[in-house]
Each structure stands twice: as structure tokens, then as C-alpha cells.
Amino acid sequence: ASILVINGPNLNMLGRREPEIYGHETLEDIISGLIDLADEYNIRLFDFQSNAEHEIVERIHKAMDDDTDYIIINPAAFTHTSVAIRDALATVDIPFIEVHLSNIHKRESFRHHSYFSDLAEGVIAGLGTKGYRLAFEAAAEKLEES
Ligand code: DQA
Question: Which reaction does it catalyse (predicted)?
């Protein structure tokens, strides 16, 4: 089984970016933790980060042909703006979990709405990098059941 982890804009700057909000771990730290977890579950991990909306749309399309069973996505700022990425997820019809490091509901009102949450299998926000591990475990266990 394969799980694709997608991270949106500015998440390549984690560790250096507003650490009081997003913490000190880098994206590399997050992904290497997920690779270890993937080994435990015997799952293949695909990892993708982009700052460009169209690249994320195209990576999601590719997931239809590369045997991706589950997607974990932090759309970052596109959470609040991107009908295109939402539509891409609906197009491929692969179950996904939406993850945010920060609790978007506790922040500025423009972050309260997500274009993804009503399509997601689950949403995790506010638990920092642990949210990715929890999402991965939830996805891996669903795949084991099926
Ligand atoms: C974020 C929250 C978004 O509002 C923000 O634009 C991000 C990161 C988070 O992980 O907390 O870039 O998705």
C-alpha cells in the first residue's frame, strides 16, 4: 500500500518560519519520522512539497496512476483559497486526511474556513508535527483493515 504526503506553500521553510506558531522541526524532520513509521507498517511513502498550486493539482492527478491508496495533505495557505486543489482531490477520489500544525480555528478568521474539510475523511489541527504521525497511523490502520 502507498500513502502520499503533500505539503503546500511555505512549509519548506518549517523550522525557520514563525517558530512560535509552527515549531522548530523542519519538513525533513517530519518526513523522516513518517518514513520510519511507513517502514513499521510496511507502507510505501510518497512525499511532495510545492509552493505552486498547479504543481499540487498535477501531483494529485498523478496519484490516480501511481497506486496511491491514501493522501495526507497540509494545503497550507491554499486551505483557505484553492477550489482547484479541492477539485483535484474530488477528481481522483482517493481518501484523504487534512492536517494543520496550528489550530486554524484559534487564529485569524480568514483561516477558519477550509475548502477541504467537508471532503476529508478526517481533519487534525493544532497538534503540531504530531498531527502528521497521527494522520499516518489512522491512514495505515484503515489500509490494513481493507
Ligand atoms: C497551516 C495553517 C494555514 O492557515 C497556513 O496558511 C499555513 C500552515 C498549518 O499547518 O497550521 O501555511 O496549514
Answer: 3-dehydroquinate = 3-dehydroshikimate + H2O
